[in-house]
Amino acid sequence: MAEVAEQEEVKVVAPSEPLFSKKNRKLVTDPLTDNNPITIQVLGICSALAITAELKASIVMTISVLFVMGVGNVVISLMRNIIPSKIRIIVQLVVVATLVIIVDQVLKAFAYELSKTLSVFVGLIITNCIIMGRFEAFALGNGPWKSFLDGIGNALGYGVILIIVGVFRELLGSGTLLGINVLGDPIAKTGLYAIGYENNGFMLLSPMALITVGIIIWVQRSRNRALIEEN
């Protein structure tokens, strides 16, 4: 008598990747150092030159870009399978414009004076090539979580440079940080001003922002010579 053996179909389920695996952590850490969007990819230079005369403006711009890139990457990732390729750029612009409008309205409601200082540069986040580049190069081809980490990482890499430049420009140009006198009172001649120190007004001009970014690029490449491009 023939025996019929029933074979159970065994499904092999691949272990899911941890949320903060080494590969996922690199999405956040790489843009901070060896793949920085400003110093390595040379993107987003305009805002680095324009709004870094004050540290407060640099911080607010960083937070704004963090929100736009983090949320925007997730939205584009969720929509990636339903966006027709012919209109993907238009869809990306609509998404980023919506998020920038939200940021602009929040600034006008809660930090009106600062919103006037940033003025048109908040609106120019829409055309920031870092954001559009990450939408196109990463979010359209990856899941929401990876896209979120990529957006946060690149926004932090952008923001770190803005804040570093903002610190040097405000400190050496005005003697303040976040509007607080750090080097002393230039009118009452206290602190460093008592021994003849004077603020360098040139630091508040846009050319000095370019020079400061150039110095950061030089320091970064001198520490890691693998970043130096060969002719």
UniProtKB/TrEMBL annotation:
A UniProt-annotated Pfam family: Rnf-Nqr
Membrane-topology annotation of the record: Multi-pass membrane protein
Class of enzymatic activity (EC top level): translocase
Record-annotated membrane-spanning stretches: 57-78, 90-111, 117-135, 147-168, 201-219
InterPro entries, sorted: NqrD (IPR011292), NqrDE/RnfAE (IPR003667)
Entry keywords, A to Z: Cell inner membrane, Cell membrane, Ion transport, Membrane, NAD, Sodium, Sodium transport, Translocase, Transmembrane, Transmembrane helix, Transport, Ubiquinone
Catalysed reaction equations from the record: a ubiquinone + n Na(+)(in) + NADH + H(+) = a ubiquinol + n Na(+)(out) + NAD(+)
Keyword Transmembrane found: yes
Function: NQR complex catalyzes the reduction of ubiquinone-1 to ubiquinol by two successive reactions, coupled with the transport of Na(+) ions from the cytoplasm to the periplasm. NqrA to NqrE are probably involved in the second step, the conversion of ubisemiquinone to ubiquinol.
The family this protein is said to belong to: Belongs to the NqrDE/RnfAE family.
Protein name: Na(+)-translocating NADH-quinone reductase subunit D
Organism of derivation: Sungkyunkwania multivorans
